[in-house]
Amino acid sequence: MDGERHRSGSGGERARSGRPGRVGVCLTSGFFGFFAHTGFVLALERLGIRPVAATGSSAGAIVAALWASGRDGPEIRDRLLPLRRAEFWDLASPLDWLRGPPGLLRGDAMQRLLEKHLACRTFEECRFPVAVNAFNVGARRATYFRSGPLAPAVRASASLPGLFQPARIAGGWYLDGGFVEKTPLAPLLERGDVDVVLVHHLRSTSAPALAGRPGVLDVLRSALETLRGRLDETLLAAAERSGKRLVVVEPDPPRVDPFHLERGAAALEAAREHALRALGAGATATAAPADAAGRSA
Is the pLDDT of residue 7 over 90? Predict the structure, then answer.
């Protein structure tokens, strides 16, 4: 990726104080990455960085929506860390599979959790504008939700293919926004009130190298990661053309999954500490950091 980038473990200095700028925050998709994104939000609040707008995809959509709805970082942390698998593990029945596209979980329990924890019901009630993406199965493209009910849109954005059944909204079927667009930059690039875009980029879990002939799923996963990477590069090139300043913060927190939710606290803290190191020096209430000595080649 182009733009200023701060990777976990880099030996560069902290970012130095920067020119003023109105900040938009982009939280990428990442399998059960909402703990890490919460750590990033905690770091931004600690540094006094307040967004004028935010976007999110999948796990990023969950945190972006909670934040925009009126929950601050500590509230989000206190609501997500106690999460247990049983709270969202609503197994689909064979009848559910006959009624619509398949998925291990129905997703209704996830939506109830979102409705419980969001501080408002609609996009319009949020304290700052937020947009979340989802993959429109029928149209075969990413769709951004920016108005209307908040919880169903976030559910759609986080409906990971295979794990959750697609979400039904206004007659259409929607899947995880990160399925095709990991980094939801477009709405922020369109905004005239955003000068600096802060991207919290969670790396995709890498599959081990294959010793033998790849299977169908291996080929599909490789093709999807290639597509996502190319789309990310296209979006980042668009950001450069837009004249907006782009800062990408890329931590490497412990991996979390439905069967290891206890790792969430460690992932949150790792991301928080990484963001504080990357962005800490000289940050102000409306200013993102300037050039860092430790940017990647």
Answer: no
Residue 297 forms part of a structural domain: no
Give whole-number Cα distances, 83 to 70, 229, 263, 264, in Å: 20, 31, 11, 9
Pick from 23-27, 104-108, 137-141, 277-281: least confident: 277-281
pTM for the model:
0.84
- Indicate the pLDDT class of residue 19, thresholds 50, 70 and 90: very low
* Residue type (1 letter), 174: Y
231-269: b or e for each residue (b if 16 or more CB lie within 10 Å)?
Answer: bbeebbeebeebebbbbbbbbebbebeeeebebbbebbb
Six-digit token string for 39: 């750590």
Could you count the other beta carbons within 10 Å of the beta carbon of residue 296? 13
The C-alpha atoms of residue 141 and residue 147 are separated, in whole angstroms, by 19
Query: In this structure, what DSSP letter does residue 258 have?
Result: T
Nearest C-alpha neighbor of 72 from the set 43, 97, 95: 43
Q: Is residue 124 part of a domain?
A: yes
Q: What are the residues whose beta carbons fall under 8 Å from the beta carbon of 275, sequence distance 6 or more?
A: 39, 40, 43, 44, 200, 249, 251
Q: Decide if 290 is inside a domain.
A: no
**Residue 94: per-residue pLDDT:** 82
CA angle 212, 222, 145 (to 5 degrees): 155
Any domain includes 291: no
Residue 175 sits in a domain whose CATH number is 3.40.1090.10
pLDDT in tens, 85-137: 999 999 998 877 666 678 999 999 999 999 999 999 999 999 999 999 999 99
Total number of domains in the chain: 1
